[in-house]
Request: fold
Amino acid sequence: LTAQQFPDSDITVASVGEHALIERVRQRAASSADWVLLGIGDDAAVLRPARGAVDVVTTDAMVEGVHFRRDWTAPRAIGHKSLAVNLSDLAAMGARPRAVLLSLVLPADFPLRDFDELIDGVVTLANAAHAPLVGGNIARSPGPLVVDVTALGTAHPRRLLTRGGGRPGDELFLTGTVGAAAAGLSMLQEGEERSSLSPEAAACVARYEQPSPRTRIGERVAGAKAASACVDLSDGLADAVRQLAAASRCGVVLDGEHIPVDEGAAAWARRRGQSPVDFTLAGGEDYELLFAVPRQRLSAFRAVGRREQNVPLTRVGRLAPEPGCWLERDGRREPLGRGFAHF
Amino acid sequence: LTAQQFPDSDITVASVGEHALIERVRQRAASSADWVLLGIGDDAAVLRPARGAVDVVTTDAMVEGVHFRRDWTAPRAIGHKSLAVNLSDLAAMGARPRAVLLSLVLPADFPLRDFDELIDGVVTLANAAHAPLVGGNIARSPGPLVVDVTALGTAHPRRLLTRGGGRPGDELFLTGTVGAAAAGLSMLQEGEERSSLSPEAAACVARYEQPSPRTRIGERVAGAKAASACVDLSDGLADAVRQLAAASRCGVVLDGEHIPVDEGAAAWARRRGQSPVDFTLAGGEDYELLFAVPRQRLSAFRAVGRREQNVPLTRVGRLAPEPGCWLERDGRREPLGRGFAHF
Reply:
């Protein structure tokens, strides 16, 4: 029973069964990475560790009705994003991705074609990141689709980035632009027609649905020891700033005039009568990286930035000796809001 | 807001929030394993690999309404089993557990007290296995509780057990007894009162709810190179035998007269008019190990067995050169049934 034989029928995953689904994944996930000693098909996967390195591991789940809606987002994008959010966590540690495990909890009526596309979304990004899909699990769901990914990476033990290494006086830098994912989600929630979106608005939806993890710059900054701390923006800039400052036992002052708000997000916020910065601070899921950079490492940090020319780096604030999280704008200082609650 | 302040109230996980839940897990999971360089609280966990070893990784999810029911099974047992099934996969590879990631998808009204107990179930088994809980994720569920565990282990690269190393003529050995978990599930399904169960029947329910992974014997057999292949019995004996034979490109003959059916399971099967062996072959979730042992390694295998005196080892069949999966009993040979379908 294959999708090729019944291309237009509504074959479900339940009608195919667990073993056949695993075999479909195995065929799609074929990889030649020499550190994968045993991939899909046994009780566990086996990897050769990188020499002189440490293992970096993270897991993150995406849940239908909470993190995505199947009537909004294509299965391929759901698969992509489920992995991207994990690769973003590895990037925030300065780790290089090595392998991926995928645990799927599938409604019985989930179409086989959607299953194949979801797997392709995971596998395409996994292979692009040189982190093959090496194992996982398939279980039945009496409710929502759940896509749970574990990403395994590797890092040099003395070049790890944590949240807790920042010191007062370190400058805060942000990759890329922020607010786009929140704007994209807001557009979908308000029922905007995809076909009538402006290019800037469509880019926001794409940022929400298919974020690009900042794998390379995370690894490069870590390799150059150019930052003292890093965190990714899964729950938004305000939350990321808080997390980094708390782990580093510092206060923080965010520079509200220099937050690199995405152009489409700014337009969307203004259209709704909101300040682009306030909209951005309350939004999540940009998956950019926030670095703390000691002053004496600024030139090394900027040198990495010059080599990674397609990643803008913007100074957005600084760690401070006095406690508290503050936003400075229009010459005044106000308490920083809470940001996005994912749970 | 802590459970101590409101010991009898119905505080839910949603009222506490993600950050506070992660902090509760972090406090419960405190561990001193020297290979854990960074545990709960950053973007990812960091582990020092074991010297000269390979990494062995597996993931498995348990889903409310599919793998467990909250009105039957205590949160602590749900936590225990979610990890146990993963440790069983590591045991089947001959790997030593090293660390655990826990991804929870929680209904908003999940009681905080149940959350704490579930975490305690995971952490107690994790610590007993010397595999601390080092990270994870908490997401909201609009439906069932999902408990997804990733277990990381380590093995000597030339002492790995796979499913595929068996050869015709190898003898098949099983740890422990089988059928108990299926009988325990059947008792719960038929509404047996726990308080009125016989000790043998109560033991079946305990085997279903809180299986003990065969970590030590898996590691010892692998260390002695005493087996050519191994698989665990997550989906029952018939399925395990099929998987091992298929991966080893052999046929298999199961000896129906010597299958070590659990006493309580045999009594339960007979009470329902079923043959204990047929009941057992169709049942799953025993989490015993099935080993293929080459004849020239039999004495080494038995020597491991003598050192692990509390683990019975029973010869249950052999791998065969001719294809097919067969059951021999009463002097006749019949095709082996399909066994338990988890999905």
